[in-house]
Specification:
mainly alpha, 4 helices, 169 residues, extended
Length: 169
């Protein structure tokens, strides 16, 4: 936004010196924002990827200015997201060991925490209510649409379907 513009800003405006390379701030902001949130086992990989990518951008004032803009953008995003719930602790317990059929058990067993169990408590960036993405329920059993879908599934889904082309013909 600071370099190209043309979109609605998420946070406070950031100014960029004229001629700043747009690749450097995008990479830097993404890197620093992600680095603050990834598991410590992923930091080395992230550092390597960032250094490799930045190495492909020619050295000079445009790159340096772009990195500074990216640093400012990352700091602004992280400040806006300070109390978004990402740092909450959610303890998961199985009801018994082993858990009854149908109860979730983490890969490491009931004494471990599922990966990213906290995400359900993190405030989304743009969506106020995630339920807006839930699909509608099934059509009523008495509707014409349900009847049509049932007949199609029955006719095409049968093992001995006479209407489905199997490719063996």
């Amino acid at each position: 936004m600071a370099i190209v513009g043309g979109y609605q800003q998420y946070g406070s405006p950031i100014s960029a010196p004229r001629g700043s390379d747009v690749r450097a701030p995008v990479a830097t902001a993404a890197y620093l924002t992600a680095r603050a949130r990834v598991d410590s086992s992923q930091v080395g990989y992230l550092d390597h990827q960032y250094k490799t990518y930045l190495g492909s951008i020619p050295y000079g004032r445009a790159k340096d200015n772009g990195v500074q803009v990216g640093e400012a953008a990352a700091a602004a995003i992280l400040a806006l997201r300070t109390n978004d719930g990402f740092s909450n602790t959610v303890h998961y317990d199985c009801s018994s060991t082993p858990p009854p059929p149908g109860e979730f058990e983490p890969n490491g067993g009931c004494g471990t925490q599922p990966v990213d169990q906290i995400l359900a408590q993190v405030t989304p960036f743009t969506t106020i209510d995630p339920s807006c993405f839930r699909p509608g329920g099934p059509n009523p059993l008495t509707s014409e649409t349900y009847t049509r879908d049932f007949i199609e599934t029955r006719d095409y889904g049968r093992a001995d379907s006479s209407v489905r082309h199997t490719g063996a013909d």
